[in-house]
Amino acid sequence: MCFFTRNTKDKSINLEEDRAPIKRKIAVASQKGGVGKSTTAVNVAAYLSSFGYRTILIDMDPQSNSTTGLGINTDDVDLSVYSIISYTEDPNKVILDTGYDNLKIIPSTGQLENAETELVSINKKEHRLSDAISRIEYDYDFIIIDCCPHLGILTINALAAAEEVMVPMQCEFYALEGTARLIKTIDLVRINFNGKLEIAGAVLTMYSRTRISNQAVKEIKKYFSHKIYNTIIPRNIRLSEAPSIGKPIMDYDPWCKGAKAYEMLARELVSDEVEIERQEVTILPRRIIDFWDSGSPPRHAAGKKRKLEGSR
Fold first, then answer.
1. Domains observed in the chain
2. Could you tell me which residues are beta bridge partners of residue 166?
3. Rounded CA separation 180/199 (Å)
4. Within the chain, how many helices (H) and strands (E) appear?
5. Higher pLDDT, 172 or 84
């Protein structure tokens, strides 16, 4: 299924050969768990690195899903982002290779949970991560920060260090639940800690061909207006399987729908010179949508009604 078209105006799109210098710090944040936040962070980072961009993924979630999603066993990690947040460790000592060209990671472990309480009385605790990033940011084109799903001091650290926020939103009935709180947190961080912070956009994830998904997409578009990425991430079993074996989707199954969608999302991030035209989301066939709008009974129901009337 194609959700968008790309009008290249006869320009060649070769991100490896034609890329311009770029420096972006993007936090992937959501107030809800299970919306594809870590999946988005891992796969966007992986594809950006495959395009030739020097990319680092910072795992700020104590669940360590981004860390294990790149095949790193947290039991083997000596220094992690916890060392940076709680003990101001040199980030260069914490960075690990991932086995993928141009892709590094600052891993997380369960220890990071302790940072929430350890930082309570610390001065300038909101800037621990931004101070660390300032020591390495010139070595990378993209810094992707995977935030934890609750809006505590760890998420505030991530937002204070980033310049953009990408918000994954599952195409479901409760997609917007709690979003106002996330927006309020972003506004507070912008006012108090980071005046450069912006919402880059919402990413629609876990889309399936259902009426509920259709309604969710419409509601999300109303709320976020133009701040929505054109790429829609489908619900895809291969995306669910890839983290269990510690691989990004581009390595696990590069031809599945989920892989193609994340590749296009990554290209959307770096292809500002390419016009990406949004089409109407063809979530359901037009004949079905028209049928719903007509208020007519389903064909099988109408057939049963005729049989009942004939037997009387």
1. 18-282 (3.40.50.300)
2. 28, 201
3. 13
4. 14, 10
5. 84
